Structures are given as structure tokens and as C-alpha cells.
Amino acid sequence: MSTTRTATGASLVIFILALAAGLSVASIYYAQPILPLMGNDLHLSVNGMGLIPTLTQVGYALGILFLLPLGDRHDRRTLILIKSGALAGMLALCSFAGGLNALLVISLLIGMMATMAQDIVPAAAMLAPEGKQGKTVGTVMTGLLLGILLSRTVSGLIGEGFGWRVMYQLAAASIAFVGVLLWAVLPRFQAHSTLSYPALMKSMAHLWLRYPELRSAALAQGFLSVAFSAFWSTLALMLLENYHLGSAVAGGFGIAGAAGALAAPLAGALADRTGPARVTQLGSVLVIVSFALMFTLPLLSPHWQLVVIAISAVGFDFGLQASLVSHQTLVYSLEPAARGRLNALLFTVVFVGMALGSVLGAQAWEMAGWTAVVGLAALMAAIALAIRLMDAARVSRTARLCASQR
């Protein structure tokens, strides 16, 4: 009976971690389907609207790089709770923004504080039973990824029905709620390092140089993130111009993409059994195929074009999330005492890719329309696959060299 209670309690903690990860990371995506609403309200240009998700992604990348390493030096519980309070405050402030400059500063800070999601993932890995790390990380990542994808659906519906400011007020309330849950269930975490903050930051350079596996994982996932962000940051504009569909429909495509989040626990379990490298290759191939499918749009009727876009969203999100969970599993295994810094390096590159995707996607859209956006995304995924294949070749060469020296 006590064992059952323990297992139930552990499952509850993991569920709350997944919920918290999803709600916190959703904060950086709420703007995407409601950009036209924000633009109309504040009289913003297309470039001005594009800066909002870009600054949020940049803030997330900066927060990962400069704040996430603190998880190796301090109690993760304390860091998560501080960030949850700050994030709730920033979201509330955003709902009262009266101009582009204020909105951009707040968006940057929202991105930085939303990195509590990336403190939660390594915390889940620490709480995972032996041999279940991949599955546990995958479960929490399911919540995180559903937050990324369903945030667009929720934001689109609420924004169209009640206005974009109400959306941010509800977001602030959700983070305050989940912060209370985390305060109630999270245990304290022992720090793994006594390094000072400057020494922690310096050690990240050594970790980057020491592990080629880390560099390959970060770069491959970074290129996949460019593709992901280019698609989602321009989808609302494309649907409005090409199909005269509003933000609610743009958000509705998040439901299709959310099906891809089912890949997270499956990929984690598969990585536990077969190793993560193979899963990253398969994920990259699926992303390429899914974007390539959208090149057939000019041949189809408008109805079937929308169906193909939805199918492609499921496919590339499935492939991208499978690759992400597998890359995390690979990186976390390199040096357990440095998980915070390893995670920081991985996700700094990922969200630099996200920020670049927002910028490049907007430029591709203005230059040559949706075909250019799809072409950009397919090219980025092909580069990611090439990186994974080169890393596999490097591992194979190393194995042969070690065998010949025995």
C-alpha cells in the first residue's frame, strides 16, 4: 500500500511539473496568433509586430544562457518559485502596455522568466527512477510541448473573443496558480556545484568544447527550431491573407500540431531502449518530409490546402519533438552534475534558432510568400539531418579506432 501511495505521489509531482512547464513556456507563444489584434490596437507595422515574438525568443535564449546555470549552484525549487512570481507579474504588465517600446521590453522579460520551464525539465530528470529518465523527461516534455502548441489555440480563441489584453491577464493568473502548486509539491534540490557564478559561466565554454555530442545536438536542434518558428510565426499572416481566416483559426492549427507532442513520451521510451541518436535522425527525416508535403499546395483546392497544412503540422511537430526529447536525453547523460549548464547550452542554441526563425520567416514571407517560408523550413531540417548523420559517422570512426587499438 505504501509503495502504491509513493508511486501515486511521484506521478502527481510529475504531472504538476508537466503542467507548470507547459503553462510557463506557453507564455512566449501567446502573441503569435494574436499579432494582428495587437497590431491593430497599437497601430504597429508588420515589422513591429514581428519584433514582439522575436524579442520574446531572444529573452528566452538570454535567460537560458545566463540564468539556467544557476540550477547547478542553487536549489532548483527556489529558482523555479522566484521565476514563477516574476513571470506572473510580467504577463500582467504586458496586458496594460500602451505602445511598442513598452511591449518589447516586457516581451524580453517574459522570455527570460519563462525559462522556469527549463529549470523544471532537469528537476524532473533528477526525480526520475533509475532507468526511467528518458520516459520521465518525455512526460514532462509532453506538457511543455502541449503548452507551446495549444497556447496558440487558446490565445487565438480568447484574443478574438475577448481581446489580446484579457489573454495576458488570464496567462498571469495561470502562472500564479501553478506557482502555488509547485510551492506545495516540489522538494528541495541539492546543489551539485560550489563554483561561483563567473566560474559557472566559464565552465560552460569548457563543456561546449569537451563534448562533440553536445555541439551536434544543439546545432541540429537549433536548425530544426528555425523551421518550427518560421512556420508558426507566419501562419496567422498567411491564413489571413490567403484564406481570410482570423486568429481563432490560426490558433486552431495548434490543435493539429499538438498531436505531435505525443512523440515526447514515445521518443523518450525509445531512446531508453535503443539510444537517442537513431531517434534524432528519424525525427529530422519526418520534419523534412512534412514540409516537403506543403510544396503540393498550389495543386490543390483551398479546402485540401488547409487539410495538408494541418497534416504537415502534425508531422513536423512529431518529428521535431521526438528529436528534442532524444537530444535532451543524450545531453543529460554526458555529465549529470552539470545538467543545468548542459541544458543551458542546448536551449540557448535552440532559442537562438527560434528567434532567427521568426525573423527569417517574416522576411521569406515578405519576399516570396508561403512557398519561401516552406522552402526555408525544409532547408533548415535538411541541415539538421546532415549534422546528425555526420555525428553518427564520427561515433562510428571513434568506435573503429578504439577497436583497432585493443
In short:
With 406 residues, the protein is mainly α. The protein is 83% helix and 0% strand.
Q: What do these coordinates show?
A:
This protein is mainly alpha-helical and 406 residues long. It has helices at residues 2-26, 35-42, 46-67, 76-94, 100-113, 116-127, 133-162, 164-185, 197-210, 212-243, 247-258, 263-274, 276-293, 302-332, 339-368, 370-405. Helix 1 (2-26) packs antiparallel against helix 8 (164-185), helix 3 runs antiparallel to helix 15 (339-368) and helix 4 packs antiparallel against helix 6 (116-127). The longest helix is centred in the last third of the chain and has 36 residues, at 370-405. It starts with a helix and ends with a helix.
Descriptive tags:
406 residues, mainly alpha, 0% strand, 83% helix
Distance between the termini: 51 Å
| Spatial extent as radius of gyration | 21 Å
The biggest sheet, with number of strands, parallel, antiparallel or mixed sense and barrel status, is:
none
> What is the H/E string?
HHHHHHHHHHHHHHHH
The gross shape turns out to be: globular
- Helix percentage: over 70%
Mean pLDDT score: 84
Q: Assign the structural class, choosing from mainly alpha, mainly beta, alpha/beta, alpha+beta, or little secondary structure.
A: mainly alpha
